[in-house]
Amino acid sequence: MGIESKYIWMDGKLVPFADAKVHVLSHTLHYGLGVFEGIRSYPQPDGSGGVFKLDEHLRRLTDSAKMCRMDLPWTQAQLKEGCLETLEANGMADCYIRPIIFFGMGKMGLGARDNPVHCAIAVWDWGKYLGDEGIRNGIRVQTSTFTRHHVNSNLQRAKVIGHYVNSVLARYEAIDNGFDEAIMLDGSGHVAEGTGENLFACRDGVVKTPPVVNILGGITRRTVIDILRHDGVQVHEMQFGRDALYVADEVFLSGTAAEITPVREVDRRTVGTPGAITRRVQQVYQDGVSGKIDWMKPYITGFRPK
Length: 306
Ligand SMILES: *Cc1c(COP(=O)(O)O)cnc(C)c1O
Fold this sequence. Notes:
By secondary structure, the chain is of the alpha+beta class. The chain contains eight helices and 17 strands. Helices cover about 25% and strands about 30% of the residues. A hairpin with a 2-residue loop joins strand 11 (about 200-205) and strand 12 (about 205-210).
């Protein structure tokens, strides 16, 4: 199945998939100022659906809108209702959820301030973002020639639509060069993240990951840190260069779309098949989002697909 569903939520009500349209003079289409989220629902043991960390994602969404000075006509609670209504109406328990907030038509130009703010929530079936084979055996990555945004050129902790030009360019380049994904370095040359995933490196049983300064503060990243600390594994949030990846015992990426994806090669240096720490985090994450781990259950919002 592709991105089709029965209904998309638009500005407070469900509309048939084919009718979920916007005008070509929508402000966001021209200048990229808008915000979005990527959330997942997983089937739960009792057959219902469960959204993982829905409140955390919607909080980041409203934070992103605030930072961009977009005044939302909906509260976070209303957006939560919207997500659940969309999931129920589409009868999907195992899917990706994409809320997007954008400026509609009105005035053009960079200084336009009064354009209407719209919100849409779509759901679709999204399997393994970096491939089934990637999840099992690891992917091959390349350091990008594109630099991650300077910390002061954008709002790094916001999921802003326009930011993703940088990610798409890096992803295209990596794929064209025969790799599966790009690793982005920041303006000072430190490892930042993947194009849409955070990054972890392990050596001698100790794990490190870049701090949330010039990266998107991933909700999966937070979950991974919690899983590791639960197991008594040391995790350091610190800066490091690409050379740390070349000598790592294990490297993996984390994200709602990518889940936990092992990396088996960086810039033609072998990291190897997924190691014990990566495997363990993958397993706990999958069990956790599927409602099988007690301490992770409070993060799941249940619903009944119709
Ligand atoms: C969304 C995103 C991530 C992952 O965040 P999650 O909250 O774990 O889904 C990481 N990096 C970038 C650039 C992203 O856009």
